[in-house]
Design a protein that fits this description.
The protein is an alpha+beta fold. The protein has three helices and two strands.
């Protein structure tokens, strides 16, 4: 589980951000690797999970299941 905490935004910040194209094709209306990251004050958990696929955790599960990576 991962949690993202945003700073409290002003109406002007929200309006300015939503005037761009980033929020319209993203789950949660932000991209942690995009402009929306400027509003993130804290992350708990896996960064790659927030992006979409928890890479470290997936790799650990695959190798535990016997995958050799080749």
């Amino acid at each position: 589980m991962s949690e993202v905490t945003f700073t409290r935004l002003t109406s002007a910040q929200i309006e300015n951000y939503s005037d761009g194209t980033e929020p319209f094709d993203k789950a949660g209306a932000y991209a942690i690797q995009g402009v929306g990251a400027i509003f993130i004050s804290h992350i708990s958990g896996s960064y790659s999970n927030i992006m979409g696929l928890p890479l470290h955790e997936t790799y650990a599960m695959l190798t535990e299941a016997g995958w050799s990576g080749s």
